Amino acid sequence: MKTFKIGGVHPEENKLTSDKAIEFLAISQKICIPVTQHLGTPSTLVVEKGESIKTGQLIAKGDAFICANVHSSVSGKISKIDTAIDTSGYKKTSVFIDVEGDIWEETIDRTNTINKDILLSKEEIIAKIKDMGIVGLGGATFPTHVKMMVPNGKKAEFLLINGVECEPYLTSDHRLMLEKGEEILVGISILKKALGVEKAIIGIENNKSDAITYLTKLALNFTGIEVHALKIKYPQGAEKQLIKALLNREVPSGKLPIEVGCVVSNIGTAFAVYEAIQKNKPLFERVVSITGKSLKNPSNFMVRIGTPVIELIEKAGGLPDDSGKVNSGGPMMGKALNSLDVPIVKGTSGILIMTRKESKRPEILNCIRCGKCITVCPMGLEPYLLAQLAENGNFETSEKEKIMDCMECGSCQFTCPSSRPLLDYVRLGKNKVGLIIRNRANN
């Protein structure tokens, strides 16, 4: 069975919600929608305080090349426009809405009929994906329409669909594959047409045998779509590792998947593309796993963007008494929240409530030069060295040692016997080196 070769770890899976069907979460009475929910340039507001809006209405326009439109997830009146902290921990310009009913834009098809006929041209598909504000839902939130625009001189041969969901605890993609499989395959067919490729491969780890069986059966009715089972190994859902596992191709350092003829998209993104193209529905809701070992009712919810995290927690049985930390995302790549009032955004795949025991960091000991962090690094880096360089402020050498190749998967920190905060220091180093690179490019 296929997998990537260099590095990787096997954290406890803890897929507590894999058998929990997706439920629709009740609409909050007060919604806060950040106007930047994507990688790239902030979007430009096109609404004002006091304005009445509908569900699906454009509220911020993506004017720059790498940017994305943002739409209202509810109907009501805009009470204010202010800054608010989102799941990233940073303040973002946000639209605050007092909800009044749920009146959708008339152009959205709200029926459950599955539409398989793809009538739009390649150019029309890309334009509509842009209009509907679709971004990568695997976590990176890169604008999908930009990914579909293959640069001159490059050629896309394969569309790879990430159904791996290797992050412990999270099951939103798993449930989508089981409950929206046909729509996902239509979405993949749409992405194939946009890219002009003949073949799409869905990679799924073999701990989701039900999804593998189901999508394999469905794929028989679609041209050029295959399902490949993968060995369980974290972080197989990362683009470069998925490409290596499925095609045995290696993306060069500092380059993108298109260098080896690939475009990678997430299962959730494929479903959002289906809804955008076939139902004229903007991306204003997504599936979120709310999970944790002490949580009374771990669940998968379809959640409107802008819903406060606390409302998911309350619906799942409330915050457990032994809670130590609440993460946006899983335990490996997720980030702790400093408030439960922050809104769900496009990139929120899960909310993890960790117990005090789980969230307590062990005592940090001296590095014993065991080399485990090097062995498990899927990018072939030296995490102990990168962390040490960042800690000492040696960012010039950090760049030479390819710190920007780090995907922040956390495998190094997970395996370190001395509990060194390797990922924390590498993230610091990446931020500093990234700033240096941008300043150099602007001078």
Overall mean confidence score, pLDDT: 96
Looking at the structure, the CATH topology of the largest domain is: Rossmann fold
| Gyration radius over CA | 21 Å
The gross shape turns out to be globular
For the sheet with most strands, the description reads: 6 strands, mixed
Write the topology of this structure.
Layout: E1 22-24, E2 30-34, E3 44-45, E4 52-53, E5 58-61, E6 70-71, E7 76-85, E8 91-99, H1 122-131, H2 144-147, E9 158-162, H3 172-179, H4 181-195, E10 199-205, H5 209-219, E11 225-230, H6 239-247, E12 262-266, H7 267-279, E13 285-291, E14 299-304, H8 309-315, E15 323-328, E16 335-336, E17 350-355, H9 356-359, H10 372-376, H11 383-391, H12 395-400, H13 411-415, H14 422-442
Parallel strand pairs: 1-14, 9-10, 9-12, 10-11, 13-17
Antiparallel strand pairs: 2-8, 3-5, 4-7, 5-6, 7-8, 13-14, 15-16, 15-17
Protein architecture, described:
This protein folds into 2 domains: 1-20 and 108-360, 3-Layer(aba) Sandwich (Rossmann fold); 372-442, no CATH class. The protein has helices at 122-131, 144-147, 172-179, 181-195, 209-219, 239-247, 267-279, 309-315, 356-359, 372-376, 383-391, 395-400, 411-415, 422-442, and strands at residues 22-24, 30-34, 44-45, 52-53, 58-61, 70-71, 76-85, 91-99, 158-162, 199-205, 225-230, 262-266, 285-291, 299-304, 323-328, 335-336, 350-355. The model has no long low-confidence stretch (mean pLDDT 96). Helix 5 (209-219) links the parallel strand 10 and strand 11 (225-230). Helix 1 (122-131) packs across helix 4, helix 3 (172-179) packs parallel to helix 5 and helix 4 (181-195) packs across helix 7. The chain starts with 21 loop residues before the first strand and ends with a helix. The strands form 4 sheets. A 6-stranded mixed β-sheet has the order 1-14-13-17-15-16. With 443 residues, it is of the alpha/beta class. It is globular and about 65 Å long. It contains 14 helices and 17 strands. Helices cover 29% and strands 20% of the residues.
